[in-house]
Here is the input.
Amino acid sequence: MAQIQPLRRPTGVALFVTCLVDQFFPEVGEAAVEVLERAGVRVTFPEAQTCCGQVLLNDGFPGEALELARRFVEVFAPYEAVVSPSGSCVAFVREFYPYLLQHTSLEAQAREVAHRTYELSEFLVRVLGITRLGARFRVRLTYHPSCHLLRGLGAAACAEQLVRSVEGAEYVPLPRAEACCGFGGIFSVKFAPISEAMLLDKLADLEATGAEAVVGTDMGCLMHLRGALQRRRSPIRTLHLAELLNAREP
Here is the structure.
């Protein structure tokens, strides 16, 4: 994994909202903006942004992924920092862009942009030094760290620290939290039986906590969990970290 560079506190960031949030869960993007602004950061949304290309590379289309990587770097290069409500997409930008764009005219820019692209909780805790945002939410909750946040970025503790800071919430650790939920993007389609088996294990662990809500940092994982929970009529709801941190219950 490419190492992030120390960054002075930026006054403004560009929001990289990701495909899933843009198309299906815009409320998560809106919550991320409000959380960042409450942290004192000016947020810009570059409308020319598109997919980061992860799904294309994972499915065997490196040429198409390269074109999207090139576009991402050109769109986000002017900004002090890039923040996204997804550990998965950020890990892809940080890990793969320097290789996808090596030996091109954008090689140096790709490394610079990759080094200043952050997942939301990582940015709040490691760059801004913020571990409490005054969120209030009366709920018994648990936290599922996504694989890319945990293993790719090594930032799972940032999100957990923020989850634990929410006033009124009762935090319950998730057994075998490090286990994948079985989503993995195209993995859940190509290897559906394996994905379902992993999902069932994760659901059993979630239900064992007695939690009313599970919090995550990637809508891919949360969408995967939400669908299964709804199909079995479970009372457990899913929440993105940005939505939790933006909660202001009286």
